[in-house]
Amino acid sequence: MVSRTTSSPWFKGVIDTMAMAGLDTADLMRAAEIDPAVLRDRDGRIATEQMSRLWRVAAERTGDPKIGLIGSQLPMPGNFDVVGYTMLSSRNLREALESISRHMRLVSDAAEVMLEPHGQNVLARFGLYGGREPIPRQRIEFDLLTILNFCRWVAGRPIEPVVVGFIFPEPADVAAYRAAFQCPLRFGAEFNGWVFSPEILDAPLPAFHPMVAELHDNLLQQRLAAFDGARLSVRVRREIAGGLAQGEPRRESIAHALKMSDRTLQRRLHEEGVTFDRLLDATRCDLAQHYLARPNLTTADVAYLLGFADPGTFFRACKRWFDASPTRLRASILDRQRRAAD
Predict the structure, then answer these.
(1) Is residue 111 included in any domain, yes or no?
(2) Which of the listed residues 130, 150, 159, 332 has the most CB atoms within 10 Å of its CB?
(3) Could you say which DSSP state residue 92 is in?
(4) What value does the mean pLDDT of the chain take?
């Protein structure tokens, strides 16, 4: 299975926060099968399954379902690598969120931030993909809180979203969440993410400077070119994910979208040790959990969104990926969410 990954700077931010909370991070990394040497490699990457295991073990070892709220007041700009600098020098919060939306893969190609209209406001929808490992709600809570607090730090003032949404059920201790997020919360929502008003999005940011913004953008483009050049598979997966709802994408059409020949695409993927078919299968596997966690989608809807010709093909793929039918997998995901809320 080809895994999505999270950057070493983000991982280091998570580990540093856990250490400040008194957790035995060396023990947690051993349990999650993460090599501590990655902390010394600024270009290192950690498999998304390992990140999920880290949070699952942290919740189990502490017995605290609210462990994702640790470090709730820390901005942790280092987590965001060079993407954080472009956000800091943006004209306003709208531009900052657009930047993280476009460049999130540098922080983690297992996560995405998508901006879309939400009535008179804007929804910044947060997506996280876990491969074959279930995603603990604590990991999602930490990510949502960390990004929100970084936006507050960038703005240099209190920012209150219209609401922060969570797809999972309301936890037993809602007060702790209200204290951490300091804004209205909605559990059992159709999205994980933040809803912002135009007034908040378009207010000027204090650190904006055109020349500095241009410098940061040039640096970011260099990092992106290096990352995308070294990881063609990331770009292929992004193209596959974007076209699945129109049916199973063909390798030739993906090569055309990436402005290369089919032969070149095959050769470069071979150099990375992957094939197009493996990337297609891995992308579908990631998205299956993502979609099945949304109760408003039927399993037939999910099959369609994954580009399968019929629900039966999706059923067989799900059995192969998770040794469970789509219905059983959805029930397991929702049950984990309910139990984690207690």
Answers:
(1) yes
(2) 130
(3) B
(4) 89
